[in-house]
């Protein structure tokens, strides 16, 4: 259980996971554009995706929850 939050404000360019999907540590979850750079937000540990509150095209602030895990 846990969540991954946005490390900086930006725009969600792509969502690489869906609820119920198993991920391993290091897998790309979200691609976030900040300051004209693409940043890959990765899983810190293996787990199963519970929810994906971040949607493609959404603007997020630092600390916003992007993905939660079961």
Q: Describe it for me?
A:
It is a single chain. The protein is an all-beta fold and 70 residues long. 0% of the residues lie in helices and 53% in strands. The chain has no helices and eight strands. The strands form two sheets. It has a four-stranded antiparallel beta sheet with strand order 1-8-6-3, with no helix packed on it. It starts with a strand and ends with a strand. The relative contact order is 0.39. The model has no long low-confidence stretch (mean pLDDT 96).
Q: Note the gap between the termini.
A: 4 Å
The radius of gyration computed from the alpha-carbon positions, rounded to a whole number of angstroms, is: 11 Å
Secondary structure class reads mainly beta
Low-confidence stretches: none
Strand order in the largest sheet: 1-8-6-3
Beta content comes to over 45%
Q: Which word captures the global form?
A: globular
Q: Quick one: how many beta strands?
A: 8
Q: What is the overall number of helices?
A: 0
Helix percent band? under 10%
**Elements, N to C (H/E):** EEEEEEEE
Mean pLDDT: 96
Q: How is the main sheet built?
A: 4 strands, antiparallel
Write a concise synopsis of the structure shown.
The protein is mainly beta and 70 residues long. 0% of the residues lie in helices and 53% in strands.
Give the key terms.
70 residues; mainly beta; four-stranded antiparallel sheet; 8 strands; globular
């Amino acid at each position: 259980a846990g969540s991954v939050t946005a490390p900086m404000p930006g725009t969600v360019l792509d969502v690489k996971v869906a609820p119920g999907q198993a991920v391993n540590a290091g897998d790309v979850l979200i691609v976030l554009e900040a300051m004209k750079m693409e940043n890959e937000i990765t899983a810190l540990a293996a787990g199963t995706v519970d929810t994906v509150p971040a949607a493609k095209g959404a603007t997020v602030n630092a600390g916003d929850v992007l993905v939660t895990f079961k």
